[in-house]
Amino acid sequence: MGEVSVVENKKVILKNYVDGIPTETDMEVKLGETIELKAPKGSSCFLVKNLYLSCDPYMRGRMRDFHGSYLPPFVPGQRIEGFGLARVIDSDDTNYKPGDIVSGIIGWEEYSLLRSSDNLQLRNIQLDDDIPLSYHLGLLGMAGFTAYAGFNEICCPKKGDSVFVSAACGAVGQLVGQLAKLHGCYVVGSAGSKQKVEILKNELGYDEAFNYKEEADLDTALKRYFPEGIDIYFDNVGGSMLDAALLNMKVRGRIALCGMVSLQSLSTSSQGIKNLYSAIYKRLRLEGFLQSDYLHIFPQFLENVKRYYKEGKIVYIEDISEGLDLAPAALVGLFSGKNIGKQVVRVAKE
Amino acid sequence: MGEVSVVENKKVILKNYVDGIPTETDMEVKLGETIELKAPKGSSCFLVKNLYLSCDPYMRGRMRDFHGSYLPPFVPGQRIEGFGLARVIDSDDTNYKPGDIVSGIIGWEEYSLLRSSDNLQLRNIQLDDDIPLSYHLGLLGMAGFTAYAGFNEICCPKKGDSVFVSAACGAVGQLVGQLAKLHGCYVVGSAGSKQKVEILKNELGYDEAFNYKEEADLDTALKRYFPEGIDIYFDNVGGSMLDAALLNMKVRGRIALCGMVSLQSLSTSSQGIKNLYSAIYKRLRLEGFLQSDYLHIFPQFLENVKRYYKEGKIVYIEDISEGLDLAPAALVGLFSGKNIGKQVVRVAKE
């Protein structure tokens, strides 16, 4: 390398640990720090320019002062991190060369210095003219893989099964429903706005969809769409929707526990799940999972889902916020359902 | 048959549907009705003298005015029924001959007229001098089979696993713990009295046991006995014990949902299960089951458990009430934990 340039490195930092639902003011977009655009010799690091950040519900867990989860909390005063896509600028790691596009856990900042030994789930991305780069955070990234692994490995789908998906228009849910349709299932989704319900029915191929905010009683809503019961519930929300689903499962139904957006925000004085007793006489199986346990099928996932997409059998909807300044709002928006489809932040043009 | 005798047939009837926990006054021991000790020609029925009745927690479900379960409710004003053992007196069914001992669903009365087409789960009992007849309601009956099927088919036990059993001294729990020990597991049980805790440790071979009523905090209690977490929780109670166990499961732990004595009695305003979110990041599997789904392994169960018993590898503890007059108290006692071991009512000498 010749002359090394030093540039400002804008960051999103966590101000304090968060109880309950995060707000924009829990984060700060911080200017003034600089970074050398260089990977130091002997460091085994590589320096990337960040292109896209993924906004994911699990990140709320890292904003709490809770150390018992599978990921450690963020550190107040320091930049937060999450899945993203970046272009390698300089490298002291022979696996990553300048110009490569990588996905993995990167900082919420303009440039990051990464080291592959830090368990960042780094992966070189094979560019494909037919597929938008940002899809590697959604359809072909953690969200899509969560849908694929959870539906195929946990739900045991069979042709003709009745499938219910909550948060069905979200980053994970939209693919679950489409995979279920490809399996020959009857699929109903719930979402939190009229616009999302229309997208589910008109763009994502769901057989039916409903706005849970307009339902006085979720049990009644599910009985309307599943008069004979539910074989598979892909649960992205927990809480009262899970409780209503438990009442409407068929004998030997399967529930994939993927996320509990509603539950995680509840205080300890809140209600819990009351209908778990249904699992006994209906012989239900409830199973939690993490996509990271299924990485052995990631190549099969990429191959299949890329093919489905290129053949026009599936679509994917993204909600892209432009620029790091909008990143806190984008992340916070997940918890009020502001986003439509997979929420991504574009940090820089490719 | 020659002369037919007509005798009085004492019965236990349900007076009214029950909300919450049943009491003795919800039932009545009724005298005055008579029965002919004869199976009418052409009826395909057979008449039995009832010997033993099984008191089981699931019977509470049949005392409620709730028609959505896998068994219909009892009918107020009529005699209740449950698993029992009886001797055939007269028969119009060639499968059942006078003198045979049968198990199945019989009336809570001195004599019952049964028909095998009524789905009474009838079975001829092979008498065995080394095994008390009443064990065919517990160790070798539905309770024992529930333990066997649930532990082997749902819990996936491996040598060295850490196993927790609630209601561990009960009809099901006492066998679960002993089976777990035979699998080479570390086994801890909870029960509701000091006496039961002593029995668990000194007679049933549990490695450790505790009285949940003496614990200020169940989470703390479980952390004491499982500092590295629980692989298998065989849940006989639901409620706050299930909630505490969820916090203490190891990654990929398994929870067999067998009964929820505590939950079933809760009103709709009560607390639910709050820690189900643990199932996601710990990838837990919770599965409900009914022994009746596993009848294909009943012969294997009988053979194995009889052999374990004869070899002195397992024991079984019964609590026998003498006479139909004490049957309501015996049934009600289940819900306060009065019984020690499998609760049985002896209606008549063999």
TrEMBL record, chains A, B:
Transmembrane segments: none annotated. InterPro entries: ADH-like_C (IPR013149), ADH_N_2 (IPR041694), ER (IPR020843), GroES-like_sf (IPR011032), MDR_fam (IPR045010), NAD(P)-bd_dom_sf (IPR036291). Keywords: Oxidoreductase. Residues 61-345 form the Enoyl reductase (ER) domain. GO terms for molecular function: oxidoreductase activity, acting on the CH-CH group of donors, NAD or NADP as acceptor. CDD domains: double_bond_reductase_like. This is Enoyl reductase (ER) domain-containing protein. It comes from Arabidopsis thaliana (Mouse-ear cress). The lineage of its organism: Eukaryota, Viridiplantae, Streptophyta, Embryophyta, Tracheophyta.
